[in-house]
Amino acid sequence: MNLFEFQVPEDKLHPNFKNILIPQRENERRLLSQWANGFVDRDNKLVKEFQTTFNSTFWEIYLFQVLKEFKYTCNWDHPAPDFEVSSPHLSFVIEATTANAANGKPNEWDKTFSEEEMAKTKRFNELNREAMIRLSNSFLSKYRKYTKSYSKLPHCRNKPFVLAIAPFEQPHFNLQYNRPINAVLYNQYVDEDAYLDNPSKYAFGPPTIELDFVEKDNGSEVPLGFFANDEFREFSAVIFSCTASWGKLSAMGVDFGSDVQVNSIWSHSKKGVPEKHILNSQEHNETTVDGLQIYHNPFAMNPLPYEVFDRQGIVQTYFEPRTKEIIRHGLDHALYFRSVVRKSKKSL
């Protein structure tokens, strides 16, 4: 399977796909091809979809590489869901999806880096609100698909059903880390803007609040807290990452020269204290799973065992509905944010 042999006319190619064809990204393309090695294209559309829609296929290839690194096997006998996985712990199912821009809103590849756009990245509520709306939309869409279709498939029954969501819903989506997804799943929102407005009021950092819903531009309300009750007990967990973008390939690549800078924020302590790193690509050390997050449903009919994704670099989050406490494992080595900058080029 050659991901980069054109399947469509050039004017049909996705902007992101065009962007990765430059000679300087040869090593990154080679690494992605290695990730895709062994991926079974069951409907013979994967390459075309990668070249025309990009993000959803990239996310699936990334997830496949994660499963390969765990040495888990995939059963490709059925057309859906995306991954039927066998592990030493148990068999489980993964359905992959992406959060995308709403109609009329800027796409993630429409970054302008204008003064106005960059000013918006200094505040978080609007970015997080848009992310919550789009993540909720993707979650509910897949839940409807599950109830109408997947729940009736014999190979999905009595197994953990895991939804894997990647956020590509707006420019600078990579800044969100876990603020929106925590609210979407557990109704726990860390209000960083409240802290920035009045830091002396919050001696222990930004407050965590229950929003209950988020309001769309048209005034309609989108409920939050899907895993705060048993309504969505069929979903065992959510896999999430805002660092599983093309920038990961750039950050993991070698011999890119001194014109490549990797800006990243990590936690190296169990308390999750952020530390900023600015390094060139040769100094930066990042693995495939760095930045990956697992959110467990406390009401799951078929819980996903912790051991399935127990590896350094992966943060696993649990929620106690009675006390509203969020417990996170893996913060002693956690990637929060990463951007890759080439001289005179856009960041990835």
Write up what this structure looks like:
- The structure is a single chain.
- With 348 residues, the chain is of the alpha+beta class.
- The protein has one domain.
- It contains nine helices and 15 strands.
- The chain has helices at residues 15-19, 26-36, 46-52, 55-69, 115-120, 125-148, 179-186, 192-197, 246-252, and strands at 73-74, 83-86, 91-99, 161-167, 189-190, 208-209, 213-215, 221-223, 237-240, 260-267, 274-280, 293-296, 315-320, 325-329, 334-342.
- The strands form four sheets. An eight-stranded mixed sheet has the order 1-2-3-4-9-12-13-14, with helices on both faces. Strands 11-10-15 form a three-stranded antiparallel sheet, covered by helices on one side.
- A hairpin with a 4-residue loop joins strand 13 and strand 14 (325-329).
- Helix 2 (26-36) crosses helix 9 (246-252), helix 3 packs across helix 4 (55-69) and helix 6 (125-148) crosses helix 7.
- It is globular, with a radius of gyration of 20 Å.
- The protein starts with 14 loop residues before the first helix and ends in a 6-residue tail after the last strand.
- 39% of the residues are buried.
- This is Glycosaminoglycan attachment site.
- It comes from Vibrio crassostreae.
In short:
The protein is of the alpha+beta class and 348 residues long. It contains nine helices and 15 strands. Helix content is 26%, strand content 22%.
Helices and strands in order:
Layout: H1 15-19, H2 26-36, H3 46-52, H4 55-69, E1 73-74, E2 83-86, E3 91-99, H5 115-120, H6 125-148, E4 161-167, H7 179-186, E5 189-190, H8 192-197, E6 208-209, E7 213-215, E8 221-223, E9 237-240, H9 246-252, E10 260-267, E11 274-280, E12 293-296, E13 315-320, E14 325-329, E15 334-342
Parallel strand pairs: 3-4, 4-9, 12-13
Antiparallel strand pairs: 1-2, 2-3, 5-6, 7-8, 9-12, 10-11, 10-15, 13-14
